[in-house]
Amino acid sequence: MLRWKSIAVLGLALAVVGCSSTGKKELPPAELKDIKAEVRLDEVWSRSVGDGQGKEYNRLVPAVDGQTIFAADADGRVMAMNRETGQVLWKKDLDLPVSGGVGVGSSLVLVGTLRGQVIALDSASGDEKWRAQASSEVLSAPVVNNDVVVVQSQDDKLQAFELGSGTRRWIYEDTQPVLSLRGTGAPLVTNQVVMAGFASGKVVALDVQRGLPLWEQQIAVPKGRSELERIVDVDGGLSLSGDTLYVVSYNGRVVALNPANGQILWQRDASSYDGVAEGFGNVYLSLDNGTVEAVEESSTSALWTNADLARRQLTGPVVWSSNVVVGDYAGYIHLLSQVDGRFVGRTKVDGDGVRVRPLVVGDMLYVYGNGGKLVAYRLR
């Protein structure tokens, strides 16, 4: 979906973005080919989390803290479950349209709403601790360290709130383009620094205490004549692995940065509205056209490319054991070998589709479908 800065939200699917204004008929999603399954997925448990992603283009993601997994639906139901058994520990109905979540840490569970509210719940009981008001709708999970909660809102502002009370500490604003994708990536926060990507194609690092910029790096530069062609959002979030920060933009590049100073270590042309995954010395991407790609960190060349999921509106990738996992619009998850990208497994999770990337914790894979089905898997 796209969003005009000062006019309205356009009800367009991401699949339409590639059409531009040429008038050409968009090709349908690729049909799935039969595969020879080399791994078996065992369903450990399954639970329904209310209405799931709802009717808006929400991207609500579950979160794990210790032995508990937390999930929220678009109608404001927040649930805590034992991540090994799926046993429900508590439920909380907020009766508000939740659009950003779930964030967890420092004994708090955090969600954001379409009205810009940030709500903090006690992670052990679900009791509400505080509410705060952000500058606009919150479309990604709030993040937390042991001092502050940081939220990125749709108007390209980063805001920090006191952990104990929800009092706003600081606000940082980036220049918002005329047209952008609907959504934001969740920022990364440490005890000293918060890093975030913006719709301008920029990544910024701020001092977490005062919100002062430490460095910024332009990941993608808008090109083309139309505002549609000039979209360069960094919407997939950032990935920090060791001493390298990975980021990818729409209509731009995948880039490896030094998180200390923002210096570019390497870069490669790419276009994605999801983030990256890292493993086996490679960076894995779900490109906006449905191609899954492995890029070697050492040479920045493509190790392998799998184009058999073209136009299937893939989630961001995750690494699970020796596999790369992506979900698609029809509710399937696909397992690809990290070695050569061949399909090694597939299963259908939710008939309403899977929009948010699966979550890997230990040997478990958690998949949250658009219709509210949360499923835990193990490999056999």
Automatic annotation (TrEMBL):
Compartments where located: Cell outer membrane
Membrane topology recorded in Swiss-Prot or TrEMBL: Lipid-anchor
Keyword terms, alphabetized: Cell outer membrane, Lipoprotein, Membrane, Palmitate, Signal
Sections of the chain in a coiled coil: none
Gene3D superfamilies listed in its UniProt record: YVTN repeat-like/Quinoprotein amine dehydrogenase
Keyword Membrane: yes
Keyword Protein biosynthesis attached: no
Signal peptide residues on this chain, from the entry's feature table: none
InterPro entries: BamB (IPR017687), PQQ_b-propeller_rpt (IPR018391), PQQ_rpt_dom (IPR002372), Quinoprotein_ADH-like_sf (IPR011047), WD40/YVTN_repeat-like_dom_sf (IPR015943)
Annotated PANTHER family: CELL SURFACE PROTEIN (PTHR34512), OUTER MEMBRANE PROTEIN ASSEMBLY FACTOR BAMB (PTHR34512:SF30)
Biological role stated in the UniProt entry: Part of the outer membrane protein assembly complex, which is involved in assembly and insertion of beta-barrel proteins into the outer membrane.
Protein family according to the UniProt entry: Belongs to the BamB family.
Oligomeric and partner information: Part of the Bam complex.
Protein's name according to its UniProt entry: Outer membrane protein assembly factor BamB
